[in-house]
Amino acid sequence: MKHVLTCIAASGLLFIPRPAAAQLIILPGALLLAGYRATCGPVDTMIQPIDDIAAAARGRIYLHPRVFDLPRAQQLFWYTHECAHQIFGPNEAAADCWAVQQGRIQGWLSRDELRLLKTSMENFLADATHRTGVVRIAYMDKCYAA
After folding, report:
1. So which domain of life are we looking at (predicted)?
2. pLDDT in tens, 79-109
3. Which range has the worst mean pLDDT, 49-53, 59-63, 68-72, 118-122?
4. pLDDT reported for residue 101
5. HEC profile of 62-86
6. Is residue 5 part of a domain?
7. pTM of the complete model
């Protein structure tokens, strides 16, 4: 019988249901990113596989689980960028700028860490809501210096 099931599975005829992708909701103030308690007022965070590294909707920040594999400053940048959307709405430039400025003020984004973040973004393509990585980087430099 085991041999028959192995043959059926190999042929692709056997369907074994897989559990849905894990989702985890983290209450406001309870998220730890690289040992740092990340908070965005009353906004909760959902950890789940999405089509981006992070996203925002009113009252919720979404983080792809792979965000936890990034360096500390990049984890905090993407979280803070999405938090900025709670304040500034869909304005991507404002979210980038605020995240960079908060990182500098709070001490988790040094010039070296900003350089690494920019390197990770330099090949980003433009889409309906985002400018190219090169344009975003130039603006982030100005915000960091301000």
Report:
1. Bacteria
2. 999 999 999 999 999 999 999 999 999 999 9
3. 118-122
4. 97
5. EECHHHHHCCHHHHHHHHHHHHHHH
6. no
7. 0.81
Q: Do the Cβ atoms of 66 and 53 come closer than 8 Å?
A: yes
Q: 121 CB contacts (<8 Å, ≥6 apart)? A: 133, 136, 137
Structural domain that includes position 78:
22-145
The pLDDT of residue 19 is above 60: no
Asked whether residue 2 is domain-assigned, the answer is no
Token pair listed for 70: 């990034």
Q: How far lies 62's CA from each of 9, 67, 115, in Å?
A: 35, 10, 25
Task: Name the nearest CA neighbour of 136 among 110, 108, 97, 98.
Answer: 97
40 domain residue, yes or no = yes
Measured CA to CA, the distance from residue 117 to residue 124 in angstroms comes to: 12
Within a domain: 48: yes
Rounded Cα distance, 78 and 85, in Å: 11
Sign of CA dihedral 81, 87, 91, 94: negative
Q: Which two tokens stand for residue 143?
A: 């915000």
**pLDDT value of position 18:** 39
Element (H, E) at 24: strand 24-26
Tally of structural domains, the chain: 1
